[in-house]
């Protein structure tokens, strides 16, 4: 198979991306097999890694032209199932303990979003103050549970079967550089400024 050279990473954490992809592939999760990581920047000017090429379809146009309504539904269901499978993985079995800050993610995120909101607010919005106070007092008891989160999960980061509406692989590209071990708090609840179109672009 043709191998894909991956070095487009603006986060400077290609090694981090490689480690996560390798751990997931070893655990049987559908990601392209990572083949080689090179930290020698003299080779091409930056560190990089090589992974296997996966034959399939990537839907860049999120309107999904050419697919029937039923196929579009099936495609999004496949995407959600892939995401659920990712979140069901036992992080301790991946050997990625200590990869992120882990427990207490919801508390940290609510605190950060609240500080950012208050620092940028031009006037007091009682509803927002009430919401941030409520969130701070209602951190879920499961906040100490951790899972691996992709960081940029969306349809065009999935590789689908060439002819069937089936997800084959979860792409990496430069996307797993933002992956982290955390508990997802539904941070959009605190400040959802996305338009309807933007919301369908990712999960």
Give the SSE layout.
Elements: E1 3-6, H1 14-26, E2 34-38, E3 48-52, H2 69-87, H3 91-94, H4 105-120, H5 126-137, E4 147-149, E5 158-160, E6 167-170, E7 180-182, H6 196-199
Antiparallel strand pairs: 1-3, 2-3, 4-7, 5-6
Can you put this structure into words, describing what you see?
The protein is an alpha+beta fold and 203 residues long. The chain has a domain of 107 residues. The protein has six helices and seven strands, in the order βαββααααββββα. The strands form three sheets. Strands 1-3-2 form a three-stranded antiparallel beta sheet, covered by helices on one side. The protein has a two-stranded antiparallel ribbon with strand order 4-7. The N terminus and C terminus are likely disordered. It comes from Astyanax mexicanus.
Task: Give me some keywords for this one.
6 helices; Aminoglycoside phosphotransferase domain-containing protein; two-stranded antiparallel sheet; ACAD10_11_N; three-stranded antiparallel β-sheet
Summed up, the helix count is 6
Helicity level: 25-40%
State Rg. Answer: 19 Å
Instruction: Provide mean pLDDT, rounded.
Output: 78
Strand count, sense and barrel status of the largest sheet are: 3 strands, antiparallel
Unreliable stretches covering 5 or more consecutive residues: 1-11, 183-203
DSSP strand (E) fraction? 5-15%
The secondary structure category is alpha+beta
> What form results from the Cα inertia axes?
globular
- The first-to-last residue Cα distance is 31 Å
- By DSSP, the count of extended strands is 7
Strand line-up of the largest beta sheet: 1-3-2
- Helix/strand order: EHEEHHHHEEEEH
